[in-house]
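#help-structures
NK: newbie question, is this the right format to request a structure? protein is Glutamyl-Q tRNA(Asp) synthetase
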Amino acid sequence: MSGYRGRFAPSPTGPLHIGSLVSALASWLDARAHRGAWIVRIEDVDGPRTVPGAADDILATLARFHMHSDEPPAWQSQRDEAYEAAFGRLQAAGFVYPCGCTRREIADSLLNTHMRHATLAYPGTCRDGLHGRAPRAWRLRVPNGVAARVSFVDRWQGAQSQDLATEVGDFVLKRADGQWAYQLAVVADDAEAGITHVVRGADLLDSTARQIYLQQRLGVATPAYLHVPLVTNDDGEKLSKQTGATALNLDDPLATISDAARYLGIGAVAVRTLDEFYSVATGEWAKRFCP
Ligand code: GLU
């Protein structure tokens, strides 16, 4: 095995659908093409959104496609101490501050500023104090000026750049309901698992600059990133249960995985078994993404 370590990190909010299967397949092919490890992480950090039984259902579905985690799956719900430790380091270094704003107040203050039509960047109301209010969430202070720009090259989407100050603002690490924010959890998890390559859906392209900035603040390595195009419904919305994703056909896994491969630009391959399919598809993937 090479030093490559990749992962598939589903949120257990429902069964796997074609969109999440495409992400799983892409991360699986990339790991195989690099002769690396592929690790499943169950992202159940968001307690309120987690659906009981969904994680086991996802693992069983992956197994139906012969995708098995090379290490025991990691569960975010068991990693509170790691998130507390990462948060503590950022806090000790002076990068974190409490925020007393409600969603409503943030929306209102954006309406009253020039930022109105730009983005929904947090305006920094609590940067210099809580103004007598109780702390609700905890935010990471992002820099101003040139230091706010984070750039990276995505292996599929090409050159990316985001100004954290104007496009995002100081972002939440610990939410008002006491839950850890996805951005902190994912960075702590990827770092601890030694993930070298992140392959996931393009809906997370916009989060990547925040994650890279957090990695820099924590002094951990930045993995390579590849974001695959999103599978959308006819209205152009990301597929989910709410937007009409139908259940995967598990009776014919070869046909279903071939469907998923088409979204990655891998056309019909004449094979009879899943394992043959993976070997051809890995070759196709390697030609494009492993120079
Ligand atoms: N849990 C996220 C999702 O299911 C993926 C996070 C990631 O791959 O970084 O959308």
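mod (FA): yep, format's fine, and the tokens are attached above. Residues 5-78+195-289 form a domain with the Rossmann fold fold (CATH 3.40.50.620).
NK: thank you!
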